[in-house]
Specification:
Elements: E1 2-5, E2 16-21, E3 24-30, H1 37-40, E4 56-58, H2 64-67, H3 70-75, E5 82-84, H4 86-113, H5 127-134, E6 137-139, E7 146-148, E8 152-158, E9 166-172, E10 175-179, E11 202-206, H6 219-232, E12 237-240, H7 246-259, E13 268-271, H8 273-284, H9 293-300, E14 304-305, H10 309-317, E15 323-326, H11 336-343, E16 350-353, H12 362-367, E17 372-375, E18 378-381, E19 385-388, H13 398-406, E20 414-418, H14 422-436, E21 440-441, E22 448-450
Length: 454
Amino acid sequence: MKLTFIGATNTVTGSKYLLEIEQKKILIDCGLFQGLKELRLRNWAELPFNPKTLDAVVLTHAHIDHSGYLPLLVKHGFTGPIYATPGTVDLCQILLLDSGHLQEEDARRANVYGYSKHQPALPLYTKHDAEIALKQFQAVDFDTWLPLQGVCDVRWRHAGHIIGAASIEIKHNESSFLFSGDLGRLHDSIMKSPAQVEGADYVVVESTYGNRLHDKTDPLQLIAKVVNETVSRGGTVLIPAFAVGRSQMMLYFLYQLRQKNLIPPVPVYLDSPMAIDATALLLKYRDEHQLTEDQCRLVCSLATYTQTPEQSMAIDNDKSPKIIISASGMMTGGRVLHHLKHLVTDAKNTILMTGFQAEGTRGARLLNQEPEIKIHGETFEVKAQVASITNASAHADYEDILTWLGQFTKKPKKVFITHGEKTAAMALQQHIQAKLGWSCVVPDYKEVFNETSR
């Protein structure tokens, strides 16, 4: 068994792990790189394997940093099955089509306004490419072993991060691998806790918050403070949020605040077709979260949904106070950028960050208090208030991760720490070694682990 780390090494994006068992090649996750230019350029680079020789892909969940490279993988010749849970299949139907559309739109805009160095600017892939890739998806149930390619068995276990999210167990003869995927929190407001697993010989664990603990302050207090102060100034609150997971959580928080009369009855807009479709899936997958059917319906009815570009533009034409939830969460693309252009130069408004911001993204730049921000080739002065709540994340912090690992009944031979920026990954390595005494490493990009040589 050989494992190659092709993404999510010293970064939170681009998750890809190539597992070779005998003569078969299985890719665990197939995500896009985001953030720093040097990372995004990897999306255009040749893979260290021929996609035509790949036998299967297994997905932990639907977020673009785990699934967004799939249309390109298929475009380059991969013809095999893509296995994922039913919730992940449904969400990928939303996310991958939107990702293809955004790739096309970004290229079109770059060509119209001439801010790309490439002439012409081309999309990484198209919506049509995504449609083709989606035909290769096959849904698999949680907690059921799937024989794969005649060499191993694979099982998906609830990870509690978003709908459909899983940790993946792979067994071959007497050896086993466990890929944590993105782990949810042990006490999340909406999602159920990650399932207990027995462990594996080799564990690949995420470290997004490997150096941090979530703030224990009630997020409702923080959100109410931001909303009330902004509305009192006559301003608007813009909440960049991941379309899947974070948008639904923010709607739930705002619903609770409205029910308790802790914020004024200003309009709430969910301006993300992806987030609108994903919110509807709360009802379909009620067994994966804690909300009742009535709560799902009430939360879903809180906001005005805007589907068309014209409806989206009309929001910005209205200068009265309001709350806008829009994707993408790190402001790397999507409709949130158009709202940001209208709002960021006015001190009355607030940009409320609610999730992890990868290095090099606009979200990270705003949190770093940079005085200017570039959007669609234009530079805008940052005058709006920038606030953040750090306890609304759907990722486990390092205490949650240690608790999850500590429940293993089988001590791993090796733990590989991925999906975290370097300081976070190194911190989690120290925490695991200190508390559990396990051997763990932080792999580098394209590093190879060969079981027979260790």
